[in-house]
Amino acid sequence: MNEYLKHTIRFLILLIAQVFVLNNINLGGYINPFVYILFIMLLPFDIDRIWLLVLGFITGFSVDLFSGGIIGLHTAASVLIAFLRPYIIRIVSSQKEFDSSTTPSIKDMGFSWFLSYSILFVLIHHLYYFFLEKYSFHDFFNTISRILLSTLISTLMIILCQYIEFRPKRK
Questions:
Q1: pTM of the model as a whole
Q2: Buried b / exposed e across 6-43, counting CB within 10 Å, b at 16+?
């Protein structure tokens, strides 16, 4: 399948799942799973930085637009993680260069690498998003609880999505 088509389909599926299903999950006001960031996470290693930022903007803006909330929260958090993505990859990787056929996925990089990558990626996104949403340090510990619980659930859902997408082929 064409790589552009594959990423477009992934984008649409994650956007629809986020807007129509996951945005309606709010367990006690503490857990808000954000799985749409998986789209940015799974973009190729060799993607141009400008395209990474543009796609981060489009992803966040699309979620903001269809969520009916404050326009700009998801956009800002998505652009931030798109900007930081190369640095996050360097932090969790011992390699400087990656083969052009590999992607930052469980299938290509292995479970422990992807888990480290996911936790750091999701944690940065959630820290920025929830503090921007609150726009103050009032209820600091409440916000930290929301960040940690949402990071845990989002990371688990992202790992699950990886296993659904890359399940081993039966012979």
A1: 0.89
A2: ebeebbeebbebbbeebbeeeeeeebbbbbbbbbbbbb
Q: What is the DSSP letter of 22?
A: G
Name, in order, each residue with C-beta under 8 angstroms of 17's C-beta and a sequence gap of 6 or more: 35, 36
Residue matched to tokens 């749409």: 36
Task: List Cβ neighbours of 33 (8 Å cut-off, separation of 6 or more).
Answer: 22, 25, 150, 153, 154, 157
* pLDDT tens readout for residues 1-11: 688 898 899 99
27: which strand partners? 31
> Residue 141 CB: number of other CB atoms within 10 A?
8
